[in-house]
Amino acid sequence: MAGAASPADRNPPILLGVTGGVAAYKACELVRQLQQRGHRVRVILTRGGARFVSPLTFAALTGEPALTRLFASAQSGEAFASSIDHIALAQSAKALVVAPATAHCLAKLAHGLADDLLSTVYLATSAPIILAPSMNVNMWRHPATQANLQTLARRPGLAIVAPEAGYLACGMVGDGRLAEPAEIAAAVETALRPVPASAWAGRTVLITAGPTREPLDPVRYFSNRSSGRMGFALARAAAQQGARVQLIFGPTAAEPPADPGIELIPVTTAEEMAAQALARFAACDAAILAAAVADYRPARPAPAKIKKSPDALHLELLPTTDILAELGRRKTHQLLVGFAAETGDPRPAARAKLAAKNADLIVGNDVAQPGVGFDSADNAVVLVSAADEAALPRASKDRIAGQILAAIAALPRPVPVPANSGGLRA
Ligand code: CTP
Fold first, then answer.
1. pTM score, whole prediction
2. Ligand 1: centre distance to CA 239 (Å)
3. Number of domains into which the chain is organized
4. What is the number of the ligand 1 atom nearest to the C-alpha of 324?
């Protein structure tokens, strides 16, 4: 019931949602782990969750009634005086943790359904959210579950603690076992740590990504193996740090990021990419050119399919617009970052490009190294600026993206100068 503020009201709770999976018993240990770290815990049980562990168990562990209903009922004895109390509850939370989160729960949260207390609180809270899924291995691997996870993973402020591989209650062995309570509690601590104000907040950044396609005739084209994943990771990381991102990307099988704050600008050819980049550059604070732009294009794409013939086929190829060099010429206040994909030590070429293209930073990588660069989930790069050279060892492209953004933010801030005057610096 509503009443005078108690000491508990001044200690915002971690809301722990427990859904109907056999791992629900582990939520009892998670309550303890969170309490040992000094947190107040309030438990929200779904209907399924309450069938595995009784509300009474959680009430005894937390010293507060476990919450099971969206609306108060005369018999419930729960602390809901009116139908808006779930909003107050959601807003009072310092974090919302769901452990275990069943496949059904993930589907509901991914699609924004709000038919019980937990799913309603999920929509209404602005606190960090930590989901710890647990289910049968086939349910975990099902494309529907994986699609829901991808949707959820893209949401800002939401972390997923992946299940472990191991023996499952259903008798199968595989992914799907709830992460250990200590690991979930550690993820909660990480989510609660204040995020330092980012130099990217409110900045406009132009990013190019992926390959370009240069048509030879209506059915054939020149392209390259770039997946676009490095540029996509940069776009995602910049948007998560509060930047407004304009992502110009060529045709690729990789899914472009759907985060809020990212404007997607799909293009096909180098000239289309150049037109978009040149039109947008003046209004940007930084440009990061991660695209593998074709250096040449067929001079005269055939209007109809080229038929095979016993004769040699001679093609005339024309250079495309060098977007990086062109932006380097037009640069006024913007930070300009290019990439140098080389086979072998990328540092000499990176340093040469830094000067030749009037860039502030060149990210060099050795594409001959196995497991990194083109078409890989990982990268290993060297950052070359006028004053510095730093090697970033092999890591996921997401991690490398964060490190590249930090390095760009640490560059000396350009002093606005008229275009074409040679890029004076402070
Ligand atoms: N780039 C560009 N426009 C082009 C070609 C490349 O903006 N038409 C950019 C890439 O996005 C990347 C950098 O320039 O940031 C790569 O530099 P570049 O000298 O073109 O690389 P390579 O073609 O690989 O260099 P080289 O031919 O010297 O090996």
1. 0.61
2. 25
3. 2
4. 7
